[in-house]
Amino acid sequence: MDLNHTFIHFVPVLALVLDILIGDPRWLPHPVVGLGRLAAWWERLARRMPASGTNAGAFLAGALGMVLLAGGAGWAAWRLSGLGYAGPLLALYLSWSGLALGGLLREAHAAFRAVETGSIGEGRAAVAMLVSRDTTALDAPSLRKALAETLAENLNDGLVAPFFYLVLLGPGGLWAYKAVSTLDSMWGYRTPEYAWFGKAAARMDDVLAFIPARLTALGMVLAAALAGPVGPSFGRIARIVRGVRRDARKTSSPNAGWPMAAAAWIFGATMGGDAIYFGAWVPKPVLGPAEGHVELSAEGPGKEWTRERFVGLLRLCFMAGVGTCLAMYLAGMLIRGEI
């Protein structure tokens, strides 16, 4: 029996376990840090090019940077994963460092504790470390809602999507996706500076996250039905599914709305709404049950994100994240004829 070949089969599950137990391996060089530095270097270089002052030039510079960085990251991960006896261990490290469920849950819980036990200033500062909106005027329910939104959205971006490409294409696929996702987070702003430079990365991220975002929402609904606040009520599940399908299409992103709408409808609390980003007031749609809708959540009346609802969302994201990843892993093995 080829032990290396056998070990490679279990790398996705081992990586998921390490991510949950340990989180980001900060005591080791993290590939995202290197990607960020390369992206910043490319942007500085591209901005000095004469053609970068035009919309077309900025778009081409950003698109070329995305192709080079995503292709290079995927190629490097693929090559390192195939280096003889060291390959499987490198594959495990690259897979582990590309997942973010453990870190996401820990950081969200720490910010939640700051909101609940600290001063309002401490809560705002803690939440501001995890979200891009302005938190200076938010009260406790609004801070919980902001945390709930980033927790739901990043369940896909930080776990389900990279795991999907890990199962589909191995560590090379995971890191090609992570590179695009990193560039989208750095360049994908709708500001005059990045509207064209980051357009290719933003659109590619939309394409790559299309299927994982919907799997994330499905996993959340199934977890809520099997072991969460919804229970095995077909009527409530049907109402949630209808609500998610309707509200997910409201957002400007074709993907972010799916896990956010799932969380909103499962817990009967709204997400979205107008907010301040980078000093500008941004109108955003409201996701979740409208006023007067029959209450779906077992956590009490109202549409606010209470303590109980947010703690329930933390549990749900853990169950849905692990369950969705294991289902994708088993499906991949079944398709390849390995089970």
Automatic annotation (TrEMBL):
<keyword id="KW-0169">Cobalamin biosynthesis</keyword>
<feature type="transmembrane region" description="Helical">
    <location>
        <begin position="159"/>
        <end position="177"/>
    </location>
</feature>
<feature type="transmembrane region" description="Helical">
    <location>
        <begin position="313"/>
        <end position="335"/>
    </location>
</feature>
<feature type="transmembrane region" description="Helical">
    <location>
        <begin position="57"/>
        <end position="78"/>
    </location>
</feature>
<keyword id="KW-1003">Cell membrane</keyword>
<keyword id="KW-0472">Membrane</keyword>
<dbReference type="Pfam" id="PF03186">
    <property type="entry name" value="CobD_Cbib"/>
</dbReference>
<comment type="function">
    <text>Converts cobyric acid to cobinamide by the addition of aminopropanol on the F carboxylic group.</text>
</comment>
<dbReference type="InterPro" id="IPR004485">
    <property type="entry name" value="Cobalamin_biosynth_CobD/CbiB"/>
</dbReference>
<comment type="similarity">
    <text>Belongs to the CobD/CbiB family.</text>
</comment>
<protein>
    <recommendedName>
        <fullName>Cobalamin biosynthesis protein CobD</fullName>
    </recommendedName>
</protein>
<keyword id="KW-1133">Transmembrane helix</keyword>
<keyword id="KW-0812">Transmembrane</keyword>
<feature type="transmembrane region" description="Helical">
    <location>
        <begin position="215"/>
        <end position="235"/>
    </location>
</feature>
<comment type="pathway">
    <text>Cofactor biosynthesis; adenosylcobalamin biosynthesis.</text>
</comment>
<feature type="transmembrane region" description="Helical">
    <location>
        <begin position="256"/>
        <end position="280"/>
    </location>
</feature>
<feature type="transmembrane region" description="Helical">
    <location>
        <begin position="84"/>
        <end position="105"/>
    </location>
</feature>
